[in-house]
């Protein structure tokens, strides 16, 4: 019996020791697995942190590349808007406004636009007119040259020609007078020269005076393009120097028709000089352009109040605008 009890005791104690060992082993394994779990968690955290850092860097890179693009797009849109506004102002709004104001029209067309185009094209307005004639007019056809200049000045660039509004008045007076000897003061590019010369009867002569040698060079080419070089003699120099030479140099006794279209302050002194030199006969017709805009008040006062002239005014418009202007026709009574 004792032996049996002792065996039971030994077996129970051995069972206890085995169970204790098992518990210890489980604890150790639990601790080990806990450590591994902690390591896995920490490793996962590190990996997530690295991924987050990389994604943040990528987002920052996208932002830094997107920012200059958006700035460029904004800049381009602003430039496009400004360019569109300037185009509307340049080609439509300002020209429409200045059409009815004489001083704004002259300031805009003759001072601002001309200078800007001179810089941009590296050419002068007369050179651009010559190019328009060469590109659009038929050589030897005076009417096509007049039409080409009018079209250029209406649609592209204003110029100080007598224009297509006052042009028919000039034509009418020239046809009425049918001069043998005609004088033009102020050639510019030769527009009015061509209008006059094409209506002269056979054997007639037109002397045209131009102070600016650059204008005279262009006028020579345009007159030749119209095929009228045989009827026209272009003289370069100041009118006050050339007028006294007319009789001796060209054998002219007097003029039948005089067209004044040069510097407005010279209308009156040159008219008096023509009188003094005996170049006006009874019945000589003087036709003066731009007597309202920019205006020639002293000349108008003289021819309208002098007993030597009979004058009338032809109302029209400043060339290629809606501004009032006109021509003054004065017949010399001797």
Automatic annotation (TrEMBL):
<dbReference type="GO" id="GO:0042417">
    <property type="term" value="P:dopamine metabolic process"/>
</dbReference>
<dbReference type="InterPro" id="IPR029063">
    <property type="entry name" value="SAM-dependent_MTases_sf"/>
</dbReference>
<feature type="transmembrane region" description="Helical">
    <location>
        <begin position="72"/>
        <end position="94"/>
    </location>
</feature>
<keyword id="KW-0489">Methyltransferase</keyword>
<dbReference type="InterPro" id="IPR002935">
    <property type="entry name" value="SAM_O-MeTrfase"/>
</dbReference>
<keyword id="KW-0128">Catecholamine metabolism</keyword>
<dbReference type="GO" id="GO:0032259">
    <property type="term" value="P:methylation"/>
</dbReference>
<keyword id="KW-1133">Transmembrane helix</keyword>
<keyword id="KW-0812">Transmembrane</keyword>
<comment type="similarity">
    <text>Belongs to the class I-like SAM-binding methyltransferase superfamily. Cation-dependent O-methyltransferase family.</text>
</comment>
<protein>
    <recommendedName>
        <fullName>catechol O-methyltransferase</fullName>
        <ecNumber>2.1.1.6</ecNumber>
    </recommendedName>
</protein>
<dbReference type="Pfam" id="PF01596">
    <property type="entry name" value="Methyltransf_3"/>
</dbReference>
<keyword id="KW-0808">Transferase</keyword>
<keyword id="KW-0531">Neurotransmitter degradation</keyword>
<keyword id="KW-0949">S-adenosyl-L-methionine</keyword>
<dbReference type="GO" id="GO:0032502">
    <property type="term" value="P:developmental process"/>
</dbReference>
<dbReference type="GO" id="GO:0016206">
    <property type="term" value="F:catechol O-methyltransferase activity"/>
</dbReference>
<dbReference type="GO" id="GO:0042424">
    <property type="term" value="P:catecholamine catabolic process"/>
</dbReference>
<keyword id="KW-0472">Membrane</keyword>
């Amino acid at each position: 019996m004792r032996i049996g009890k002792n065996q039971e005791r030994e077996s129970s104690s051995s069972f206890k020791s085995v169970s204790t060992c098992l518990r210890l082993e489980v604890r150790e394994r639990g601790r080990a697995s806990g450590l591994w779990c902690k390591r896995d968690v920490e490793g996962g955290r590190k990996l997530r942190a690295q991924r987050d850092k990389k994604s943040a860097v990528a987002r920052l890179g996208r932002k830094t590349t997107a920012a200059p693009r958006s700035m460029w797009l904004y800049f381009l849109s602003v430039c496009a808007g400004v360019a569109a506004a300037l185009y509307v102002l340049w080609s439509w709004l300002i020209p429409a406004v200045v059409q009815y104001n004489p001083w704004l029209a002259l300031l805009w067309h003759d001072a601002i636009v001309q200078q800007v185009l001179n810089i941009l094209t590296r050419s002068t307005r007369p050179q651009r007119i010559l190019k328009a004639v060469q590109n659009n007019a038929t050589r030897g056809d005076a009417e096509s040259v007049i039409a080409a200049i009018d079209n250029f000045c209406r649609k592209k660039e204003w110029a100080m020609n007598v224009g297509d509004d006052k042009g028919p008045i000039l034509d009418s007076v020239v046809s009425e007078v049918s001069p043998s000897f005609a004088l033009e003061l102020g050639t510019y590019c030769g527009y009015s020269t061509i209008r006059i010369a094409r209506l002269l009867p056979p054997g007639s002569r037109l002397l045209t005076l131009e102070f600016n040698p650059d204008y005279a060079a262009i006028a020579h080419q345009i007159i030749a393009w119209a095929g009228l070089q045989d009827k026209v003699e272009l003289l370069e120099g100041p009118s006050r120097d050339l007028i006294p030479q007319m009789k001796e140099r060209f054998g002219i006794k007097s003029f039948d028709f005089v067209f004044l279209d040069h510097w407005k302050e010279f209308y009156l002194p040159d008219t008096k000089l023509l009188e003094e030199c005996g170049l006006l006969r009874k019945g000589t017709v003087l036709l003066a352009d731009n007597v309202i805009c920019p205006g020639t008040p002293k000349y108008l006062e003289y021819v309208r109040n002098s007993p030597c002239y009979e004058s009338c005014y032809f109302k029209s418009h400043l060339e290629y605008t809606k501004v009032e202007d006109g021509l003054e026709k004065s017949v010399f009574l001797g």
